[in-house]
Amino acid sequence: MQLGEALTRALAAHGATEIFGIPGDFALPLFKSFEDSGILPLYTLSHEPAVGFAADASARMRCRPGVAAVTYGAGALNMVNPIAGAYAEKSPVVVISGAPGARERGSGLSLHHQGRTLDSQLHVFAEITCDQAQLTDAATAPRAIARVLANCIRHSQPVYIEVPRDMVSAECGAVAREPEPPLDREALAACADEILARLAAAKSPALMVGVEVRRYALEARVAELARRLQLPVVTSFMGRGLLSDSGAPVLGTYLGAAGAPAVTRVVEESDGLLLLGVILSDTNFGVSEKKIDLRRAIHAFDGRVTLGYHVYPDAPLAALVDALLERLPQPTAAKPAAAPAPAPRRLAQDAQTLEPLDIAVAINDLMAAHGRMPIASDVGDCLFTALDIEHTALVAPGYYATMGFGIPAALGLQAATGQRPLVLVGDGAFQMTGMELGNCQRHGWDPIVIVFNNASWEMLRAFQPESRFNDLGHWNYAALARALGGDGVRVATRRSLAAALAQAVATRGRFQLIEAMLPAGVRSPTLTRFVESVRRLTTPEPATT
Ligand code: TPW
Ligand code: MG
Q1: Which portions of the chain are predicted below pLDDT 70?
Q2: Which of 55, 276, 285, 392 is 20 to 30 A from 41 in CA distance terms?
């Protein structure tokens, strides 16, 4: 078998369902191998950041590796930001980059797309991936591929594979899957016993679920764990959407002082907080990290469990959840779980101008009538607005917070799952990657896109109202949609928003863009509270005299 085919077969065997990419001369043989073998569908996009975001969303939705294939230098380095985001948010993306062949490397000339040295790119990606391989030797390539893909899945983080262009057709053996490393059952048992003893001794235990629960495909088992533990369950900000299909009673999403007060109380007043797969970040802890006594919390993350003053270093989340479940009997009489606050519904169909919350309400009405849709959200007020939307599957860069994610993520989501996504995106973020919608027609995707058009980098303006540089121009996004092969409509009132959403849902086969005109300075209630609490924490106390 040729190396290109062995690699593609290994990707499929490790759970990849498609390849997103943009070729270049160093990657032409690789892309030819992808196309000719027909093992995985190949979706080309327009700009490499979108390739990274689409592969990331595919990985997030399916809990399996996504694949982003690019050319050397100009292509791969364009993907640094999305891959850094995938690393931070633990999304298993396989980066495959073409590269110069052995003869070119030794020519003594500087090669096009070369930054500093020929290995600069490898070093850059070593910072933001958990394992790397340069496939320069056909004899060792199968083992290297197996190791890198196993680490991608084990750590749920991106990996990097560089394929010199003269290696694609080299003969090599098939890639065998690496065996799972053995578990330390005794350590796991001690850890599970200690966690349960802590929870039993706590007066107000609570469970917060974070992204790793999804990354390791543990939602059903964690929902069962929550049922048996009979604890209030919340998600982290980054974990918004988790357990939405499991029937577990999720009280809401924790966002500290900016979030729902009932959720904030449960978390901040808990004396036994079990954090499963939660990233301990500023955004996750809603600008009030200090209020949570982490010494009393139990934190399972990155394959280890930290509680009190000690660490169990070898406790992968899946094995830990199993060990906890083994020890917990079925509850005899289930305590009624605290009910989440209902999502706001029934948008007044009038001629009132729009505010972000209206968009959440309109979407809730739509989902009540037509069923839930998965959401891909960008960063900005649209993501805060998503907190008022019915609990549904959500992909969003809630921690790393890169703009430009929403639209390419929706394309990846639809390619990978066949589900029709709803996209929430600000005008600023749309300007970064919105053109990728032009690829929908070719690939048969038809997302519904809502552009929050406030002609502003409003989230930044909220922090610094005096700066004029946060003004954006007035672009006609609805007209742009038509130019890109979709349907676009501009709405400025609640009545027209509801009508446009109904029309969008009824129209299949073309992407639908709704440009929601928001008056300047009008923000979601959550963004307003978020900015206030960040200000409180970051403004120095006035000196007392
Ligand atoms: C890749 C910094 C965070 S929020 C924001 C910026 C520029 C404004 C977003 O404007 P948009 O949404 O999309 O119109 P809204 O609701 O605030 O009006 N570059 C990147 N990522 C980030 N996060 C920034 C800059 C930023
Ligand atoms: Mg904006």
Answers
A1: 286-290, 333-337, 541-545
A2: 392
Q: Strand 394-395 vs strand 448-453: parallel, antiparallel, or unpaired? A: unpaired
For residue range 315-342, what is the model confidence (pLDDT) as tens digits? Answer: 999 999 999 999 998 877 666 667 778 8
The 3-state secondary structure of 304-358 reads EEEECCEEECCCCHHHHHHHHHHHCCCCCCCCCCCCCCCCCCCCCCCCCECCHHH
24 & 137 share domain: yes
C-alpha 268/C-alpha 256 separation (Å) is 8
In a domain, residue 150? The reply is: yes
Task: Please give the Cα distance from 535 to 533 (Å, whole number).
Answer: 5
379 lines ligand 1 (CB under 6 A): yes
Which candidate, 53, 55, 81, places its Cα nearest to that of 67? 55
Residues 122 and 189 in one domain: no
User: Among residues 111, 93, 126, which one has the least CA distance to residue 164?
Assistant: 111
Q: What is the pLDDT of residue 434?
A: 98
* CATH code for the domain of 489: 3.40.50.970
Write down the pLDDT at residue 140: 98
Q: Give the dihedral sign, CA 388/392/395/399.
A: positive
Q: Which atom of ligand 1 is nearest to the CA of 429?
A: 13
CATH number of the domain residue 306 falls in: 3.40.50.1220
Q: Report yes or no on whether pTM surpasses 0.90.
A: yes
Q: Quick one: 149 and 20 in the same domain?
A: yes
Give the whole-angstrom CA distance, residue 305 versus residue 175: 33
Q: Would you state the torsion angle of the CA atoms of residues 76, 64, 218, 216, taken in this order, to the nearest 10 degrees?
A: -50
**Burial zone of 537 (CB within 10 Å; 0-12 exposed, 13-18 middle, 19+ buried):** middle
Say whether both 397 and 501 belong to one domain.
Answer: yes
Edge-to-edge strand ranges of the sheet holding 304-307: 250-253, 233-235, 205-209, 272-276, 298-301, 304-307, 310-312
User: So what's the pLDDT on residue 545?
Assistant: 54
How many domains is the chain built from?
3
Task: Output the CA 531–ligand 1 centroid distance in Å.
Answer: 14
74 alpha carbon – ligand 1 mean position (Å) = 24
What is the pLDDT, as a whole number, of residue 293? Answer: 75
Evaluate whether residue 96 is within a structural domain: yes
Q: What is the rounded distance in angstroms from the CA atom of residue 286 to the CA atom of residue 394? A: 18
Residues 44, 131 within the same domain:
yes
pLDDT for the residue 536: 79
Q: Is residue 171 in some structural domain?
A: no
Structural domain harbouring 229? 185-327
* Domain co-membership, 376 together with 521: yes
- The whole-number pLDDT of residue 539 equals 73
Assess whether the C-beta atom of 402 lies below 6 angstroms from ligand 1: yes
Ligand 2 ion: nearby residues, β-carbon < 5 Å? 426-428, 454, 456, 458
Question: Between β-strands 93-99 and 132-134, what pairing exists: parallel, antiparallel or unpaired?
Answer: unpaired
Q: Would you state the pLDDT for residue 341?
A: 80
Is residue 146 included in any domain, yes or no? Answer: yes
Is residue 72 a contact partner of residue 100, using CB atoms and an 8 Å limit? yes
380: Cβ below 6 Å to ligand 1?
Answer: yes
